[in-house]
Amino acid sequence: MRLENKLNKSSVMVTAGANQAFVNLVLTLCDAGDSVVMFAPYYFNAYMSFQMTGITNILVGPGNPETLHPDADWLERTLLETNPAPKLVTVVNPGNPTGTYIPEPLLKRISDICRDAGAWLLVDNTYEYFMYNGLKHSCLEGNHIVNIFSFSKAYGMMGWRVGYIAYPTEVEGLADQLLKVQDNIPICASIISQRLALYSLELGPEWVTERVKDLVKNREIVLEALSPLGEDGVRGGEGAIYLWAKLPDQYVDDFKVVQWLARRHEVLVIPGSSCGCPGNLRISFGGLIESECKAAAERLRRGLEELVRDGMVE
Asked: What is the pLDDT of residue 231?
């Protein structure tokens, strides 16, 4: 963390994946009935984590329609005007479901707003190595900031379930409270998974970044497949493994479109309504070799062309 993320005052808790890390933090930092803040389009698992842990007021902030960046002005107003103030603000950087990267100055402003309002900032850095167009991932550190990381995407360890929390060492009692939660959910990530994670770290980030280069071509292939939606129909993709596509205005019920694409064109995407933004799609270009990506993208293109031209023909 010191070398790659410039986190010098943080301690580590290893968890059974980044999703468990998120739940650990919600149970540690929040009480039932608290308010929290997230931004749409949001990561649906984070939303469900709040729901299942007794958070009764999930305030969903807007993203910039052009960049999909979190609206910091809205956040500042909301933290000042909501009583009692929200306990926690969360962002994913680069984003799931959008692949949008939050630039460091904006992330810093969000952090400062949270600090001044007495709120925690939780940053999910699962896709830290998945950056394109020369962009560089960055982390922030502070006594109000917790960071989450994952081995699943970077090292291809989906299903092995290893993630970790970087939390501020100087905050008294925080480690003890985190351990209470950890000891009552999984106790620890499985030892064999931890050994694989350690081996992955010893290989170093170069192993990851070399393979991420292959995703650039996949992203280009999928971008071309999304062209039937028009020049302004696609956003995101600066990082992670996702693109965010807006459907024609008449298709607010994106779940029906997703079902139709799966049934008629045998291609799978995620409905934007699952992420708080109906009428959109999340498309992943990860997890496929180039030839498979081309085949999937061709099905997607044919489906979108038919959707735009004729509607959902059965």
From this structure: 84
Distance CA 41, CA 250 (A): 19
Q: Please compute the mean of the pLDDT values over residues 190-199 and round it to a whole number.
A: 96
Q: What are phi and psi of 26, to 5 degrees?
A: -65, -45
Taking the model in full, what pTM does it have? 0.95
pLDDT at 160: 95
Side chain identity at 204, as an amino acid letter? G
CA dihedral 43, 211, 284, 152 (to 10 degrees): -40
Q: The tokens 């950056």 sit on which residue?
A: 131
Query: Do 150 and 18 contact (CB within 8 A), yes or no?
Result: yes
Q: Identify the band that residue 154 occupies on the pLDDT scale cut at 50, 70 and 90.
A: confident
Sheet holding 88-92, edge to edge: 10-15, 163-168, 145-150, 120-124, 88-92, 35-39, 57-61
Strands of the chain (E only): list them: 10-15, 35-39, 57-61, 88-92, 120-124, 145-150, 163-168, 234-235, 242-246, 270-271, 280-284
> Rounded to an integer, what distance in angstroms lies between the CA atom of residue 272 and that of residue 246?
9
Looking up tokens 């998120």 gives 22
Q: How far apart are CA 263 and CA 11, in angstroms?
A: 47
* Closest by CA position to 162, among listed 15, 313, 1, 34: 15
Instruction: Give how far Cα 57 sits from Cα of 12, 42, 54, 83, Å.
Output: 29, 15, 9, 11
pLDDT digit string (tens) for 49-86? 999 999 989 999 999 999 999 999 999 999 999 998 99
